[in-house]
Amino acid sequence: MKKFWKIPVITCLLTALLLTGCSSESSSSESQSSSSSQSSSMTAAEANERIDEDSISLIQFEEPKIGDKIATIQTSEGDITVRFFPEQAPKAVENFLTHAENGYYNGLTFHRVICDFIIQGGDPNGDGTGGESIWGEPFEDEYSTDLWHFRGALAMANAGPDTNGSQFYIVQASKVADETIAEMEEGNVPQVVIDKYKEVGGHPNLDGRYTVFGQVIDGMDVVDIIANVSVNAQYKPAEDVIIEMITVSEYTGEDSDADASSSESSSSESSSSESTGA
Q1: Rounded Cα–Cα distance for residues 160 and 118 (Å)
Q2: Which domains does the chain have, with CATH numbers?
Q3: Contacting residues for 13 by C-beta, under 8 A, at least 6 apart
């Protein structure tokens, strides 16, 4: 049993402030505050208690079951397909899928793009200040020790604890700094989680602060393309990267992306007054 690890807030802020866009002008401007993640099944206090490493399942990397809901985010740069974890983050999943099916995200942009960090979208205002949940008010954070900010994680952006609306982000970081790994080991993060971060990358500084509710299963190359576009000082792409539509379908076990049966098509067109998840 090992203690759930949280990096000091000062380190989180410095990390975000130092991030710059890969292939262009990105600069400093940490937009958005963070959120404390607690879940329907676990309180923040419980998250700080020692947890049994053997009880952790890295479900983000398990094969979806036939019939599970997936969604294809059709963007101006290509398609990204994601799977969901409704048992661990029921409200976040319901919120995203309902918005997608209602066309809420159609035509919106990825308004905040930081290479080696995240791509963020879902805001109808296009600047990180807009959007709302399907309930018309912010909903609470949901936390599970089975879900982490590995590369490809889909998570809720927000403006602080329990302020989730419509904005979301995908983790694009492909590796974790040696210093961060060392801090995780000193902080007693479960070894199975540390090993996975070493293998696939991600951004552990976001763990315990934002709700992870999905994982990219196809199209990480598109996420990388988006992460490398030219951005301004606020990390906004110089040319809009558009979410054209989000098609909700059922996983068929074949080509996760295109050939999942498209039972419901839709997309999103807005986002919540949340800043970003990072």
Answers
A1: 18
A2: 2-47+66-266 (2.40.100.10)
A3: 30
